[in-house]
Write a structure and sequence with these properties.
The structure is a single chain. Helix content is 36%, strand content 19%. Helix 5 (135-145) runs parallel beside helix 6. The protein has a single domain (7-196), classed as Rossmann fold. With 197 residues, it is of the alpha/beta class. It has helices spanning 19-22, 35-47, 64-70, 109-115, 135-145, 162-176, 183-196; strands at 10-15, 52-57, 94-98, 124-130, 149-158, 179-181. Strands 3-2-1-4-5-6 form a 6-stranded parallel sheet, sandwiched between helices.
């Protein structure tokens, strides 16, 4: 399957690029390297009319992910749960809150995607953000189960370690048939799609 054949009805999904994950409670040092790439991808998506959806942890202090696994992070209503200033959503972007790893689990993401493009729905989700082997992976799983085509921006996702990042990408490609592309390749795909329309 070539990028050209996947170029219809796309949406960019930006996962957990929040203060707590980039500079705060669960800081990922490696997140810094993807900020410019994601900024470039988001701005291109907006320019080409591709919907941008931010999917953000918005935990309650008693959520099991907070209590039993990672400790307090991205608590709803706090600064830690806000998107980093460099990638702040505009009023034209869409925001979905989540309370576990997957952007689909008990959120409104799926019906939102299916309502876009005048009700014809998104066919391909483009995933970026944190972390390749956790929230990106679980979101990709749920996208796959729902029949979406998946693109992962390999220079627009990161993990705590290089090993986790690389293993995450391999898993996404092998198990969920994700197309692994650079941000520049994705933007080129946007341009080609515009040329076809």
């Amino acid at each position: 399957m070539t990028p050209k054949s996947m170029s219809e009805r796309m949406s960019v999904i930006v996962i957990d690029m929040l203060n707590d994950f980039v500079t705060g409670a669960l800081k990922c040092e490696r997140a810094q390297r993807i900020i410019p790439n994601l900024k470039k991808l988001i701005e291109a998506a907006r320019a080409y009319g591709v919907p941008v959806i931010y999917c953000n942890d918005a935990h309650y202090p008693f959520d099991f992910e907070v209590v039993n696994r990672w400790g307090e992070h991205a608590i709803k209503g706090t600064k830690g749960a806000e998107v980093i200033p460099e990638l702040k959503p505009t009023d034209k972007d869409l925001v979905v809150e989540k309370r576990v790893y997957s952007c689909f689990y008990e959120t409104g993401l799926d019906p939102l995607l299916r309502s876009l493009y005048n009700g014809e729905g998104v066919k391909t989700v483009i995933l970026g953000g944190l972390h390749t082997n956790i929230c990106v992976r679980h979101t990709a799983a749920d996208a796959f189960f729902r029949g979406y085509k998946i693109i992962v921006a390999k220079d627009g996702v990161e993990s705590f370690t290089q090993e986790d990042h690389e293993e995450g990408l391999k898993y996404l490609e092998k198990i969920y048939n994700a197309k692994i592309m650079t941000v520049d390749e994705i933007i080129e795909m946007f341009a080609k799609s515009r040329g076809q329309s």
